[in-house]
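Re-running the complex after MR caught last week's input typo. The corrected sequence lines follow. Everything else is unchanged.
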Amino acid sequence: MMKSVTLLSSLVFMAILHMGCNQGSSSEQGQNSEGKKLVVGATMLSMQNEFIVNVADEMEKKANESNVELIVVDAERSPLKQVEQVESFIAQKVDAIILNPCEVEASSPAVTKAMAAKIPIINVNSATSAKPTAFVGSDDVESGRIAMKYIAEKLGGKGNVVMMHGLMGQAAQIQREQGAQEILKQYPNMKLLAHQTAGWDRAKGMALMENWIQSYGNQINAVFAQNDEMGMGAVKALTDAGLKNKVIVVSIDAIPDALQAVKKGTLDATVFQNAQQQGSKAIETAIRIAKGESYEKETLIPFQLVTKENLAKFLN
Amino acid sequence: MPNLCSMIPTQKPKSTYLNQVGESYKTRLRGLSTYGILLAFIAICIVLALITPRFLTISNLTIVLTQVSINALLAFGVTFVIITGGIDLSIGSMVAVTGVVAAMFAHPDTYPVGVPLLMGLLTGLLFGAFNGLVITRSKVHPFIVTLGTMTMGRGLALILSKGRPISNLSDEFNFIGGGQVLGIPMPIIILIVFFIICSVLLQKTVLGRYMYAVGGNEQAARASGISLNKVKMVVYTLCGGLAGLAGIVLTSRITTGQPNAGAGFELDAIAAAIIGGTSTSGGTGTMTGTLIGALLIGVISNGLDLLNVTSYYQQVVMGIIIIGAVVLDSWNQNRNK
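Corrected-run output:
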């Protein structure tokens, strides 16, 4: 609450400042048909999540470049809060809304409400069951496929795999699992030894891996963790047990820690989801729609496999 | 997970005096709770050993103990608090703050390893002292105060870390949670050392007696000249310090300071204390009981992982055990009345 109050007041302050500066430059790119500065409201799944913070940072950057007023609020993983935030954006009559959904179903009313108020709404990163004006993101099923395919190729299509799930029931968990399972079906000699949730969490991933090492020992040939945090936990547990050189670990997201681990060779591969492109494309699309220009209804940003070989272009 | 409302202490019988409180806690130590839970713990271990041969191996038990250590440290702290009739919901957030602070000072070739240790511990102690200060000055129920500081702490951890994990920590620092001495993992050593310290503090010192007295009957304790505020300040500060230690161990174990670490840890720690026979109405509880409570939670989680049971069932089982422990405790209290 306080956060949004201070945010709002500082935005008002900034807006006043800008009004002073921008007089006379009517051809500024971030302006609507009446020549007023465009305002975009964005509600993000959780600003405690590194990936989402990266998306939001890039959105801010792009908004600054384009001279667009961007209001970013944190839904703190609560779909209810998210819907309320969108309602307040509608009340403020923003020019466009960017929604980074908390949940497939529960965040849908946000989309319906914005559409009813005739305010364009752009989903970024993940989907809702209600159809928004446009979608910018990546197909999570693909990331699961890429990760499991890498494992299958490394193992020569034969071996035992364990899989760490994210929080069960979340879109990313369901889709990453779906992608992985699709690939597993193509390799009859690959066996899913065990799968269990570690809640996207590094400490939990480490504990789960320790327990798996106890129950399966040398039988495990590869680990697929649905995000890097859990993957890093698995790497730590395997290293401590002296098994890392025998077990392949692949995870998703390409967070800085994971890239460092790939560099050191402890993590075999990660799958890069482009937070920067998602953020900047979302703002770009929002501006185009608000200005009545043509836009892509669906912008899919491809995932990329990161291994030691192509690591250099992902490290900055 | 335990129903938090049940943790608000209920009205205590008014007719007890300090000496009676002292008597009753001694008898209750030998009462049903501690032994009951020990028996339950042994029974579960036997069952697990029978179904999976992997359970009763030195390496697996070492892992269980290592995994239990963080929760146990937190549970020791919260046991002090619950014994005085209070509650601390902010310990999970304290783990995050102290972990982040420690990580900030733990980069290689910056400070000697003592600095991050000290900073983490100090942060925990200060946070705990702040809890104690607000609780004793405002007279607002600790449940509410620590609910507030829980949120504050989470925010603080995010501010300090800018919402991102802090990695690249020195090997010396990572030794605290990941190293071994004579083949024994450091977290287990820390666990044993602090178990002894906390037990002695609670059972053998005047301060420990004061804690029981304050939780057993505040009026009587005040009448006998105990400074309630001082005792409460001490327990919340202690609880903060132990949370700081847990934060350091966790950060070192996963080799990164995570602003969102420790979410929900308070519930596991409180559960361990309650399963171990610490009464939510204050005045009873032992560190041995709490340790067994933490071990029980750890063993169940490990055992179900070994058996590849989904964690959904794990949560249901844990809930049943917590309710069972509280029911056992209330029967025990009624018997003692």
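None of the earlier attempt is carried over here. Residues 1-31 of chain B have pLDDT under 50 and may be disordered. The interface with chain A takes residues 52, 54, 57, 59-60, 63, 66-67, 158, 162-165, 167-168, 178, 250, 253-256, 258-261, 301-302, 305-308, 310-312 of chain B (CB under 8 Å).
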